[in-house]
Request: fold
Amino acid sequence: MKILVLSLLRLGDIIQQGPLLRALRAKYPEAQIHLLLNHQFANVEKVLDGVVNKFIYFDREHIQKGLGEANYNILWSYTQVENLVKELNSENYDLALNFTHNKLSAFLLGTLQIPDRRGLYQDEGRFQGLNNPWLRYFNERFSGTQKSLFHYVELLGNAFDLPLDKSPVPAKDRKKKTVLFQCLTSDQKKNWGLENFRQLKRTIELALNDYQVKILGASFERDTLSKVFAESELLICDLSEVKSHLKEAALLVTGDTSIKHLAAQYGTPIVELALGSSDSSKTAAYSENSVVIETKVPCAPCNHSQACHQPRQFCAEDISVEDVFAAAWDQLSGEKMQQKNLRKYLDRSVWELHLNRKSPEQKPDYSAAIASLYLNPAMVTFQESLPSWNADTELLNTWYKKAKQVLPAREVLATKKNFQSSDVSELIMIAQDILKSKKDGAGYFQGFIEALLTRFTHPVQIYDRVNGALLETAELLNIRESLTQQLCSLSTEGNFYAKGIGQLPQHGFEEARESLRRNPKDASL
Reply:
């Protein structure tokens, strides 16, 4: 079997896809796996050895130059792409997976003659491949700054049915008491500042005098790092060399870098600083051994492609050296901070139950979801959190009922020649209430809000889009209420039995045992 994986993204994204590629290898151990990636990231071969059989390169930089620079023949870029398509088609792949999910990869995959294409691809002028619920969620949540309940790797793992493993490497395998800092990122907005890292280094070495701190950097970063740190404190290395340092390090403190994704795959404990456009809900280090420190400033996360519009970098100022040191202390001491955000886990369970259904008629598997939830330490606060959770459910249901009530009938919209915003003004008011309340962080009404922002060629299309979004909202709210009811029932039964056993005197167990013994003169119990 031959499999082609498209990954036409940046270096950090490709490294982040390591768990997906390893899961693909585990699922198809005998397959030939080929990886298509941009030529400038060829050095990623050094960290994906043993997983990929062949690397194929797309020379995106030169092809773009060929389209825009006068010294190139206008047909040169077309010829380059045509030759690549011929090369790929000659491989006779059985399966293709698009990990990139952008227009370039979709158009390229659309030109390939592969019987089984999964993920986004273009065919007959239209984008295909979004019939999978997990891919639709991915498509809706990763296009802007809206939050996601699931990590990038989780979403693609579920979409392509690839079993993932986040199990951390045991701490005993860490041989050196070395803390590594990755101070610089590819985007100035994501940098915490070298002076902050210098103070953190001094704090760690004073408080934990048996640990030493080293500063990671690429060769082109040496001059910048040397302005603050001594040459003896620097570890200037390439991607292949950094592997050995990460495997043995006690901790990595980093911003949003490719190094954090590499460290996650080696089980290195991580303290990650999410600044600027970094969105930890989507692309934090995919590891159980990672702690993320997020800024609380309202402008974060900002748009990835834009420069910071603030007079100062408020997100960096919002995270103190003391905050980062406290997280580093917890990681080095092995005391895992309990995640107590029960609402997040409940919302994730609701969406998982919804996305895992093969069809709207299929009933969700509540037993698996409840079993998973009860293994979470956050569930100890379920009874305490229940009143606010139920109050939010009531508010969500109120918005849904209002929206259904004021949605114009399809027949009415079908008769309109011109559409005006006043025709759906009440729906717009409801959408504004939802956004202002900030009570829908899980995105139950995101499809509804986006439907109202979409342009339409005919008024009836707004009914179809809004009504479709509200149908999904109704399904989600039904799952939410059913899950709550089952959790309440189990919680009540558990408390009842625990209370009963607690009140039963010790001799009560002896009496019960005696009453259940078989009478030799009587066949009954």
